[in-house]
């Protein structure tokens, strides 16, 4: 593609309502890295009506990004605009598309990704449910949680995280958006320990090796995929519910690694004959029954996120 096409693409995404002036944004240190680009912490002036300066996260593409990668970031921008605001979703604050590198300005989550947070807040001596553990992810960006007075999370805290993420997913589905990659690594934790679903606007290239490739810490993304997504590339609200079961299992195990001794190749047969992960020692029966309904082989048997969040609210706050 020529220079002409990419500037045409960028122009086609221009939106005066959303464009933020580059002079009012200062970029800080790197807080995340993906296959496509980088996430930095930043400070934005007058991006919110209620405060003069706001700490934000800034998503960009690499300097040598292809026009396709730039367009993927712009597609993510339009999905985020379409989805709008919810407490349990990372929201868009603005963007810089004109006169320089394309940047998305999103809400900053001070405690970083949920998976690493859960691991940091494991109670001392917590026994992992029958799994060997991989080494710590050396590429993780340690957020500053020195002001976080909680040393370890209780089971109720974990169930509350399950509710936050289910409520975020209920909202996302109500906006006709399917996530396709729901996992604790894609959930962020913000002020007051509120979970926020992130990376829901990413265009997923299903031919890419991402799903089969091991992450730096040994986790394989296929382990969050439902059988029909894995084999027929059939992604739906129901495949998100399956991924949610794996996410809820990660939460209840304080960031455990799913199926540590099953290879990606053997996973389908393993699931097909009815194998699933075991009930974590601290997980109440009612919560595990809910998780089990979410990883039903038959899609139609899985609950909706409305039913999941109702169920969790009833467990936490009693029937109303
Ligand atoms: N890492 C990636 N995105 C982030 C965000 N919005 N806030 C904090 N850390 C992040």
Automatic annotation (TrEMBL):
ATP binds at residues 32-39, 59, 185. Mg(2+) binds at residues 186, 199. Residues 25-316 form the Protein kinase domain. The active site is at 181 (proton acceptor). It is found in: Membrane. This is receptor protein-tyrosine kinase.
């Amino acid at each position: 593609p020529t220079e002409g096409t990419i500037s045409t693409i960028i122009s086609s995404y221009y939106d005066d309502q959303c464009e933020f002036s580059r002079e009012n944004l200062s970029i800080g240190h790197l807080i995340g890295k993906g296959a496509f680009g980088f996430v930095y912490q930043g400070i934005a002036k007058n991006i919110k009506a209620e405060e003069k300066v706001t700490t934000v996260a800034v998503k960009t593409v690499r300097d040598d990004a292809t026009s396709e990668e730039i367009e993927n970031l712009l597609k993510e921008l339009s999905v985020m605009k379409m989805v709008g605001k919810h407490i349990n979703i990372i929201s868009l604050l603005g963007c810089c598309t004109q006169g320089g590198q394309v940047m998305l300005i999103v809400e900053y989550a001070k405690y970083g990704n949920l998976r690493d947070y859960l691991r940091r807040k494991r109670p001392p001596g917590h026994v992992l449910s029958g799994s060997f553990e991989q080494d710590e992810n050396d590429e993780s960006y340690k957020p500053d949680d020195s002001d976080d007075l909680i040393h370890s999370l209780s089971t109720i805290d974990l169930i509350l995280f399950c509710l936050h993420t289910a409520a975020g997913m209920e909202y996302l589905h109500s906006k006709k958006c399917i996530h396709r990659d729901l996992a604790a690594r894609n959930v962020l934790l913000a002020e007051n320990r509120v979970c926020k679903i992130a990376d829901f606007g990413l265009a997923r290239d299903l031919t890419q090796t991402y799903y089969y490739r091991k992450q730096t810490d040994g986790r394989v993304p296929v382990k969050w995929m439902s059988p029909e997504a894995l084999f027929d590339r059939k992604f739906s609200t129901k495949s998100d519910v399956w991924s949610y079961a794996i996410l809820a299992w990660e939460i209840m195990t304080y960031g455990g690694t799913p199926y540590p001794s099953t290879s990606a190749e053997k996973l389908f047969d393993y699931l097909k004959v009815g194998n699933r992960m075991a009930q974590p020692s601290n997980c109440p029966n009612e919560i595990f029954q809910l998780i089990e309904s979410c990883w039903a082989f038959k899609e139609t048997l899985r609950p909706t996120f409305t039913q999941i969040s109702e169920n969790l609210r009833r467990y936490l706050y009693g029937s109303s």
